[in-house]
Specification:
The chain is globular, with a radius of gyration of 17 Å. The strands form two sheets. Strands 2, 3, 4, 5, 6, 8, 9 and 10 form an eight-stranded mixed β-sheet that branches. A two-stranded parallel ribbon has the order 1-7. Helix 1 packs across helix 2, helix 2 runs antiparallel to helix 8 and helix 6 packs parallel to helix 7. The chain is built from nine helices and ten strands. It is 36% helix and 16% strand. It has 269 residues and is an alpha/beta fold. The longest helix has 21 residues.
Length: 269
């Protein structure tokens, strides 16, 4: 797929009359890149499920800790960040290139407002590379093909899938997407993933009515999954400590309350 064309799996046209996930998420974490409709839907969802803002902030904080960990502790210098979302402070390339200025990052998203902001804001170091692909998560082969123009798939890659597979409603399709992308990267590569859950032990029961409201009033549609189903995304990989836990608690320096969003990092053997 080429830039500027409608990606498979959804329209890339900018529609400011319907709430969109990237902009509502931006609103929840305190950003300014959103519209009144995003604020209205965001407030309604937060009224139904007040912890949603905590989830959004915890997911963002997980990204920072995970990128720093894989860059410092695992020596990863290449990142494929699928489902980038709107740029805020401390994006993947900023953290990675602070650890290693020669890090190469490819961002992937297919929302037009994300595309505009990414091309303006996501500029990295002279030593490294920061690139952006306009592509849909439902088309993993296109993502891999175009990412290979920037990343060396002969060397380990950190595949970032934070809060993105919840927009792939068909579970088998979501599993296939993970498998296709990871098949393209070599041993020593990593899968960095977060995903919302309805598991009661993490307080996730409220996700279900909130997501039903979302799916009736915003785009794209979303789903939560059980911890068992989310864990299966890591089949064939080696989970790194502490395994799959609430993303707020993964490598946290304090003892934060859990949020109903699992997070984990796993290595391809």
């Amino acid at each position: 797929m080429s830039d500027g064309h409608t990606p498979s799996g959804g329209s890339a046209k900018l529609n400011t009359g319907v709430a969109h996930n990237a902009r509502v998420w931006n609103y929840w974490i305190g950003g300014k890149d959103n519209y009144e409709v995003d604020q209205q839907v965001g407030e309604h969802v937060a009224g139904m499920f007040p912890i949603i803002r905590d989830i959004a902030r915890a997911d963002r904080a997980f990204l920072g800790r995970a990128v720093r960990f894989v860059a410092e502790e695992r020596g990863i210098r290449q990142f494929l960040d699928i489902g980038t979302g709107l740029p805020t402070a401390e994006n993947t390339h900023e953290i990675a290139q602070r650890v290693a200025p020669d890090s190469r990052i490819v961002y992937v998203d297919n929302d037009p407002i994300v595309l505009v902001h990414a091309r303006t804001l996501l500029t990295g170091t002279h030593e490294g590379v920061t690139a952006y692909i306009d592509a849909d998560v439902h088309d993993p082969d296109a993502i891999v093909e175009r990412a290979a123009q920037t990343l060396d798939f002969g060397k380990p890659v950190a595949v970032m899938m934070l809060g993105i597979l919840n927009f792939v409603l068909d579970y088998d399709k979501a599993r296939t997407i993970v498998d296709r992308v990871l098949a393209a990267v070599p041993s020593g590569s990593l899968l960095v993933l977060t995903h919302p859950t309805f598991d009661s032990e993490l307080g996730g029961e409220g996700q279900i009515p909130a997501m039903e409201f979302w799916n009736e009033n915003a785009t794209p549609p979303i789903t939560a999954r059980s911890g068992t189903d989310i864990a299966a995304f890591f089949d064939g990989l080696e989970l790194l400590e502490p395994g799959m836990v609430s993303c707020s608690q993964w490598h946290a320096s304090d003892s934060p309350a859990p949020v109903p969003q699992y997070g984990a990092v796993a290595v391809k053997p």
